[in-house]
Structures are given as C-alpha cells and as structure tokens.
Amino acid sequence: MRTGVKRVIQTGLGFALAAGLLGYMFKSTDAASHMIPMLKKAGKTELVLACALLLVANLVRALRWRVFVAQPVSRLTAFAGVCAGYVVNNVLPRGGELFRIWYVGRAAGLPLAGVTATVGVERLLDVVALGILFFAALLWAPTEKVEGLGVVTRYGAIAMVTGFVLLGALVVGLAVRGRRRAQAQQTQPAEGASRLARVLHSMEQALSFMRSPRAWARTVAWTVPLWSLYFLMLVLGLESFGLFQSIGWRGTFLIFTITALSTLIPTPGSAGGYHVLGMIVMDRLYGIDRSEAAAFITDFHMLTYYVVNGLLAGLVWGADVWWRRRLAKKSVDQPGRLGIP
Q1: What end-to-end distance do the CA atoms of the chain give, in Å?
Q2: Region label for 192, one of left (φ > 0), alpha (ψ between -120 and 50) or beta (otherwise)
Q3: In angstroms, what is the C-alpha Rg of the chain?
Q4: Domain residues of the chain, as ranges?
Q5: pTM for the whole thing?
C-alpha cells in the first residue's frame, strides 16, 4: 500500500510539474498561434527522415539492451518493449520502464528481478553517456555567448569525474561480487534473504556481461550510434523548420545535450522541462524568437515523442504478439526463445 501511494504521489507531482512548466511557456509566449503555421511550412523531407531516425534509434536501443540480458530475448520482443515503454512514459512518468520489464519478462519467460536489473544498468549507462555529452557540449559550446562558461565547465568536470568514480566503483564492486558468487556456485540468495540481498543478486547477474570484453565492445558499439541518431534527429528537425542555419552544429549540440538532460526530470513524456529549457537556450543564446522556439520544440516533441512513437509502438507490438502466437502454434520446442531470434 505504501508503495502504491508513493507511486501515485510521484505521478501526481510529475503531472503538476509538467503542467506548471508548459503553462509558463505558453503564458509567456505566443507559441500556440505559431505551432500550426510553422508545421505547415516545415520541410516534409527532413521531418520524414527525422522520424525514420527515431525508428532506427529505438531499434538500436533494443539491440543494446539485449547485450545485458543473460537469457535470450528476441529482437522483435525487445524492440516492442522499448517502443511500448516510450508510449507508457508519455502517460506515466517512469512507467515505461516498469511496463517494459513486465512485458518482456512475461513474453520471454524471464524472471522480473533479472529484467529489472538490466533496465537499471541501461539507465545507468544513459546517465554516464549524458554526463559525457554535457561535458563535451560545455567544451564545444560558443563560449562568447555563455557568460561564466569556464567556471561551469571546471566545476562540471569535477562533479562528472566524481560521479563516474562512484558509479564505476559500484559497477566494478557488483561485478566482482557476482564473479565470486558464481565461483562459489551460489546461484541464488538463501531462502529468506532480505529484499536488498535479492536486488543485489539480480544486479550482479545483470552486470555479469562486464566480465566479457566482447560485451563491453558491443555495448559501446551500440551506445555511440544511439546518441548520434538522437542528435541527427534534432539537426533534421531544426533544418526542416528553417532554424538550423541560425544555430549551427555547435549550438545544436548544446541544445541537444541540455534537452536530453531534461529527460531525467520525471514528467510524462519529458514534457515541460524539455520545452522550457530548449526554448530558453534557443532564445538567449541564438536569438531565436521565443514564440518560434517554443512552437518548434512543441511541434517536434509532439510529432516524434507522441505521434511517431505511438504509431511505431502499435505496429511493432502487434507484430510481436502475432509472431509469438504463430510460433507457439507451430512449435513448443524452444519455449524460452519467443519471437524472432
């Protein structure tokens, strides 16, 4: 009951925060009257390409996630879980991760604790990637437009290095402990073990891929193109609305990093923080009219996060359910490998 109440309170706060930030944006700008005209004038080719990159990015995220899962999960099931998770996130803050855990665990017959741990590892890697991107953006940003950037860069670097050291110590510690447990053939916590012990055991299993240099290489190989695709999506979005020339590559990278960091704010679909931060950077650093900046951010966010992700999730999820049912009718020889391998 306590967990349920806590979840309801967190969801309510997420919606309240999103509503407050969006209310501030629309009240302080004339974005509402700019949205439809700007969308009509936008370059359709660039928008279609941006949406196509979103599809590829979701697939890459699903393939990277499969590296962490000790037991086989089909590419289609992982892809469906990622896409549907994004849709749920648009309604319930952080609910998408829980839905993906439930869906993939149920579809592939995996223990929920193990799937939960792999999603936690994925989020940890995303935080590390965002830290690296933020530091790179500070170094590459147009310093003449950002007062006090040197101070921010210096203290940001200190904070980032400290965070990486702490995260690294945690990850290595869990991996070493998992290896020792495996050597001792203690595959499961003792009966009656605490909840913390079971969670740690699940994380140890999820981090077992760290003992494989090949798995590390595969993780990096998927992570670099993943964030590159997200960046190119924003480039195409700005180009389609005729804003890229005023901002350039360096500015776009700074906007991309800041808006990506805003996704850590627990609001439904990253609404609010994504919009306000993007609008402020475009307005104050690059002279984009505040209303036009807000209209672009809103149009592009709705098109990619809501429309395209929603349609994609429906198609992929339906395909996964159909394929698994078809496979179940034909053969039950490999019940653990549901979907396309």
Answers
A1: 39
A2: left
A3: 22
A4: 15-327
A5: 0.81
